[in-house]
Write a structure and sequence with these properties.
The chain is of the alpha/beta class. It is 34% helix and 18% strand. It has 9 helices and 8 strands.
Length: 200
């Protein structure tokens, strides 16, 4: 199988003492940076999907495998039918569905606990271009959600989900604790932590 390839000769590095660094270091991200800086853009990154007919523990395993906390649920036609998060699967929604329908956990599917498309809200990519990370953090905090979907229109005026912003990505890029957005009593507290570091 490897006959078409060749060995490449490795080089000694005893004389090499320097690391190359980017000539233009990216400016540190702050609350005033463009909100686009914290969006996972599906033009560059493949969205992670799962059939809405998948059993919830399989879906949770898929999330862990893909290092995400949200999956786009798809119907038979491969169209998006909703989203399911780790919180949906590990929270009270599953137990509630089991009790209401008299089912054991193994029979609970993604479609039973997901947020259906009709329940979802999003920002437009246009809104995002004109927003700052601080605006997005405030929006996440007020909604109590951990993700915001971003939509745009393609060339044929077809609306599509363009990307996603997650609270964990925002906190990682700003180098603050994930919990801070939800524990802070005021947005000023978040701003203070981002500016000066430390906890609340």
């Amino acid at each position: 199988m490897l006959e078409a390839f060749r060995h490449i000769r490795l080089q000694e590095i005893a004389e090499v003492t320097h690391l190359l660094s980017p000539e233009q270091v990216q400016a540190p991200i702050s609350l005033n940076s463009s909100a686009v800086d914290v969006m996972t853009d599906f033009q560059r990154v493949e969205p992670v999907t799962i059939s809405q007919e998948t059993q919830i523990d399989e879906a949770l395993e898929w999330m862990k495998n893909q290092h995400v906390r949200l999956l786009f649920a798809t119907a038979e036609s491969n169209s998006i039918s909703g989203v399911v998060t780790a919180r949906d699967i590990m929270g009270s929604r599953v137990m509630s569905y089991m009790q209401t329908h008299g089912l054991s956990r193994e029979f609970v599917l993604v479609k039973h606990v997901m947020a259906a498309r009709a329940q979802l809200q999003a920002l437009t990519h246009e809104q995002l271009i004109h927003s700052k990370i601080g605006d997005v953090m405030l929006t996440l905090k007020d909604s109590g959600e951990q993700h915001i979907l971003v939509i745009d229109e393609g060339l044929a005026q077809v609306k599509r989900i363009r990307g996603i912003i997650s609270a964990s990505d925002v906190s990682r890029k700003l180098k603050i604790g994930f919990e801070i957005m939800y524990e802070a009593k005021s947005f000023a507290e978040i701003e203070r932590v981002v500016t000066h570091g430390g906890g609340i």
